[in-house]
Write a structure and sequence with these properties.
The complex is a heterodimer of chains A (293) and B (148). Chain A is α/β, with parallel strands linked by helices. Chain A has five helices and six strands; from the N terminus they run αβαβαβαβββα. The longest helix of chain A is centred in the last third of the chain and has 78 residues, at 215-292. Chain B has helices at residues 90-105, 114-140, and strands spanning 3-8, 13-27, 30-34, 41-54, 57-71, 74-79, 82-84. Chain B is α+β, with helices and mostly antiparallel strands and 148 residues long. Chain B folds into two domains: 3-85, ATP Synthase, domain 1; 89-140, Single alpha-helices involved in coiled-coils or other helix-helix interfaces (Up-down Bundle), CATH 1.20.5. Classes of the chains: A alpha/beta (293), B alpha+beta (148).
């Protein structure tokens, strides 16, 4: 009987959608808890970053960023460009990775006419796969950093670009990541990492510092740290964004599954009633035929 | 006016302490003592032990290189890595020391090679941790105020 088959098909579909809803609900909860932890780590890193910026603005004021300054401050015509592209390793996070990839691609298109070579350093699998498919030159990749990378995990990325920058292989480095605006929104953000843009000084009265050793030597130790810290900050932001985007996406998926279950339940009941009605009519028709016969 | 001290690493905040009366820090040019009303200073920190004393308390922190800024009785320490006494895992530090020593003893790598350097750094870090940790066990046995 075709009616009964349809009823069963709808029932199976309801079961499957309800199961999917269970999975997306669980993923939403996991993402929510990971997001809190990722956010917490970003907050914990902030005091260091703020102090570092304040110190550097004072220090570059004294040591000077111009001629004869530190090699990481040197501005050259941008022939070689490197781009650190931070994405998630996994999907199911709404438009997060696609948006980031699009922002990265447009940065590259924008610089292609004026530079000789552009290479990409993808951090995270989704970005790596994207740039591999588009055939970009990849100078190094860092997939699988995990959900909560340490400062030490991130340092090699900064080291790689600093070494190449000092060697003169690349003249400009950008870093792109999803900035965590709030739990509901993330914004693809691309900033220049090298040459270092010295942080703006707070307009306080200049202080007469004693430097031990010389300001130049202090810059030598602080500037590489500053670059490492910026990469670390970007990765932390990107991770917090990833979890929040996944949380929202999975919440929407759970809601959509719920809607689908109610729509299907309606159809199921209707189909079931129709089958019963059809059966009743059959029986009534049958008995009527016998009585009349 | 007493000092207000902040010690942070890239990963977390280590210590925030008001009312600090004396601070001994290892710098690249040797150990220095910072007292209230110190001149404005920026200095690179070396591997070593930092001792903080305030009214009625004292704390030791293992500092593994970094940077310190003193200005207007505010002290900001940006450490590459740091642990407070109570955060140090003595067994782990002991194991790290043994490992680094074994590596340094058993190698015929030219001095200055990356592996040697790494082992030397690991050894220095573990020794600092152990030295700082010893301070804790000293006070735990109720040693009377061992003020120098």
């Amino acid at each position: 009987m075709p009616g009964g088959g349809q009823v069963r098909a709808i029932r199976d579909r309801i079961k499957s959608v309800a199961n999917t809803a269970k999975v997306t609900r669980a993923m939403e909860l996991v993402a929510a808890s990971k997001m809190r932890r990722a956010q917490d780590r970003a907050v914990q890193a902030r005091p260091y970053a703020e102090t570092m910026r304040a110190v550097l603005s004072q220090l570059t004021g004294v040591a000077g960023g111009g001629e004869g300054g530190h090699p990481l401050l040197e501005v050259r015509p941008a022939k070689g460009i490197a781009y650190i592209h931070i994405t998630a390793d996994r999907g199911l996070a709404g438009g997060l990775n696609a948006n980031m990839n699009r922002a990265g691609a447009s940065l590259i298109l924008e610089h292609q006419p004026t530079s000789e070579r552009i290479s990409v350093l993808p951090v995270g699998r989704k970005g790596r796969d994207f740039f591999r498919r588009s055939g970009m030159q990849i100078m190094g990749e860092f997939p699988q950093l995990g959900d909560f990378p340490n400062f030490e995990d991130v340092r090699p990325i900064a080291r790689l670009v600093m070494d190449d920058f000092i060697a003169g292989n690349i003249d400009q480095v950008f870093i792109g990541y999803q900035r965590f605006v709030n739990a509901g929104s993330q914004r693809p953000t691309i900033r220049q990492l090298l040459p270092i843009v010295a942080p703006e000084g707070t307009a306080s009265a200049p202080v007469d510092f004693i430097f031990e050793p010389s300001p130049q030597r202090l810059l030598e130790t602080l500037l590489p740290r500053f670059v490492e810290m910026q990469v670390y900050e970007a990765v932390l932001e990107a991770r917090a964004s990833e979890q929040s985007a996944r949380m929202v996406a999975m919440h929407q998926a759970t809601d959509a599954a719920g809607d689908m279950v109610s729509a299907l339940t309606l159809a199921y009941n209707k189909a079931r009633q129709e089958t019963i009605t059809a059966e009743l009519l059959d029986i009534v028709g049958g008995t009527a035929a016998i009585e009349n016969g | 006016m007493p000092l207000s001290l902040t010690v942070v690493t890239a990963q977390r905040s280590i210590l925030q302490q008001e009312g600090v009366m004396r601070l001994i820090v290892p710098t690249e040019d040797g150990q220095i003592t910072v007292l209230p009303s110190h001149a404005a200073l920026m200095t690179a920190l070396a591997e070593g032990e930092m001792v903080v004393r305030w009214n009625g308390g004292e704390d030791a922190i293992a500092i593994h290189g970094g940077f310190m800024q003193v200005v207007n009785d505010e002290v900001n320490v940006l450490a590459d890595a740091a642990e407070r006494v109570e955060q140090i895992d003595v067994a782990r530090a002991e194991a790290a020391r043994a490992r680094a020593e074994a590596r340094l003893a058993g190698r015929e790598v030219p001095v200055g090679g990356v592996d040697v350097l790494r082992a030397q750094l690991a050894l220095a870090r573990s020794l600092t941790r152990l030295r700082v940790a010893r301070r804790r066990s000293g006070s735990a046995t109720g040693a009377p105020s061992s003020r120098p």
